[in-house]
Every structure is written in structure tokens, then in C-alpha cells.
Amino acid sequence: MGAMAAANPAGVVLAAAAAAAATVASSAALLSYVLLSNHRSKFPWKRSRTNPRRNRRRSGLAAAVGYTPLIRINSLSDATGCEILGKAEFLNPGGSVKDRVAVKIIEEALDSGELVHGGVVTEGSAGSTAISLATVAPAYGCKCHVVIPDDVAIEKSQILEALGATVERVRPVSITHRDHYVNVARRRALEATKSAAMQREACKMEGNSLIHINGHTPQQEKCQPISSTDCKGGFFADQFENLANFQAHYEWTGPEIWEQTRGRLHAFVAAAGTGGTVAGISRFLKEKNPNIKCFLIDPPGSGLFNKVTRGVMYSKEEAEGRRLKNPFDTITEGIGINRLTKNFLMAELDGAYRGTDKEAVEMSRFLLKNDGLFIGSSSAMNCVGAVRLAQSLGPGHTIVTILCDSGMRHLSKFHNAQYLADHGLTPSATGLEFLDRP
């Protein structure tokens, strides 16, 4: 080999150059890998990882629910010096965080026998849970009947009808009133179950009365129910009190957040309607690391802020003599409540912030302009809470919140210029100065 090299010195030079180039390329690749690894370590939520908790029994539409991205909200992160991350729940098939709840509630009801294939799921909802149930129910062979307040954005009822759900709109009243939308939905489930029982009994009696001729039973048409919607009975989802709501986030959303951040988060904040989201996530995160701070952001008219901060369930709208009126004075939908639900009672919170309608409106426009995020009212309120929490903790912390749904369900109110003008809520901020109040 030495003779060959001596005979061909040019070949030796080329070989040496090739070896050097390979060494440089290898070193560069190694350096790139190290830099990329460090970058990913700093921002672990940017990684696409398979969550080991995925329920492999699900298929079809149900299997597409959950495992949503955790995205960095650049404008808020840069403004506060914290890493503010939003769980993009608007990317679920039904367009909101409530898809998880719908899946969990229906699966548990089917497993327990409270709901059967062909049955009707009823729910009282301000919109998102109803839409999720209407989306998910057919995937389990069920139908959906929803009762909603008549002041909810009209596009929500239009979406429900397009999804094939039966929609019943009622006037907004206190939960103590028999005609509160939740109480009406509960009655509809009972009515459906009674109707199914009556149909089964009628079919049984008809079968027993058939005349046998020479040992033969004449062929007759199958007994048909009065309403095909109710033929298999009803099941009241009861999202406020059904702990499947809490479990969906404790077993599912919380672990996803922990996995996506690799446990490197300092705080979590979200608003509460039923309380399931903030309760399930806060309890899971606290069990993983008690030092993680969990906070509530509460809209106008809700009593949860005072309950968390003072131990008393109270809001000025709950004054004597107004109990049977609509207590809420807010344009945010699906959040805020004046009673303690079983789901909310499961929450482990370190404190609470109060948000305003104007702050939510301004936040939604700020995020659309600076991040391209087109979000709904509850998502905007959650981001208000994230900034409040960042201001309180100081720079260098990682904060997670929930982007519940997009702005597509809020076009007639929250994203309607005339509606906002009529309520004195026209956005005017150029930055985040609307959050400068103490």
C-alpha cells in the first residue's frame, strides 16, 4: 500500500481531504445535535412526543380527541419574561376542551349501563359542552338533546342543529329555578327514559296478545316507539356534578401538560364553569409537584373568586331579592358560576384573580394581532389570568393555561363590533396597557 501511495501522491491528498471533510461534517452534525437538544431542553413543549397514557381502545372520531399541542404564546411570553404556554384545545374535533369531557361522560355511562346505544344524551349547556356531546355522541351510536340559555351566541345553536342535535332554548334564570337550562335537561332525560319504558311495555303486551293459529304466530310489523329519538331511553350528562368531568382532566389533560413540559412548569391558571378543567388539572399537577402554583381567573358576576380568596361564596350580583334573576353580568360564555359544584370542589388552588369583560375583549384582539390566535371569550380570560400570574411571579417562570375554543363560536357577541359598542366594550388598546391596573 505504501508503494501505491508513493506512486499516486495526488490520491493521498484527495483521500486526506475527504477524511478531513467527513470529520468536519461529523463534528458539525454532532454540534447541531447538541445545540438542538439544548434548545429542546429549554423548550420541551415544542417536541412532538407520544403520550403513553393514550387510550388505545378508542377508534374513529373519539381517538382524535385530546393530545393537543402546547404552544408558546410569543407576545405574552416576550412581554412578561415568562414562558406562557397555551394548551390548544380548540384543535379537538369538536373545537373545544369539552370534547374530552363528552368522551369520558359517554364512555362511563355506556360502561355502567346508564346509557345504551341508540339512547339520547341530554345536557344543559351554555354551548361548548353541548357541541362536544353533539359531535361525539353519534360516534358511540347515540343521539343528543341540548338545552341552552336563549342569550347564548346564536351560532352555537346553529352549529348544534347542523350536527343533528335537538336544541331547546330557554330563558336564563337561577339554578334554583325549575326552568334553569340544567334542570330542564335533567327532566328531558327522565321523560325519554319513561317513554322508552312505556314503549317496551307496550311492545311486550302486544307480543303477548298475538293469536296463535295452529301453533304459528302471524308476522306483524315491529312495534315502533312514539319518538325514535327517545326509543332507547335518556341519560342526563350532568357536566356540573358528574365527576367524569373532573376525571377527564385528571387522567388525561393534566398528564398531557406534565408530559409536554417534562414537568418543568411553575404555575397553571384557568377559569371555571363546571370546574372540571381547573380541578382535574390542578389536582394532577399538585400531586406530581406540590410546588406548582394553581390559580383561578374569575369573570364578573361569579362568586368563585371570593370563595377561593375569602372562603365565602359571594358576588355583588347575588344581592338579596335577585336570586331568581340571571346573576351574571359578563359577555364571557361558559365560565363563572355562583355555586360550588362537585367538580370544582376537587380543585387545589393557591389563589384567584378577577378578570373583566374589557380585559378579555382587549386580550383577544391583542393575541389576534400579535400571534394570529383567534380565540373565544373564555380563552381570552384565561390569557388575562396568565399575564396576571406572570406579573405576580416575575420573569423566568413557565405558566400554562387553556385555550378552550376559537373565536368562530363567538361571532355574534364577543367578536361583533356593534354588540361590543352597545355594551361599551369597544377595544382600543395598542398593547397590554389594559392590564396595568393593580
Automatic annotation (TrEMBL):
Keywords: Membrane, Mitochondrion, Mitochondrion outer membrane, Pyridoxal phosphate, Transferase, Transmembrane, Transmembrane helix. It comes from Phoenix dactylifera. The gene is LOC103704221. Its EC number is 2.5.1.47. It is an enzyme of class 2 (transferase). GO terms for biological process: cysteine biosynthetic process from serine. SUPFAM superfamilies: Tryptophan synthase beta subunit-like PLP-dependent enzymes. This is cysteine synthase. Signal peptide: none annotated. Its cofactor is pyridoxal 5'-phosphate.
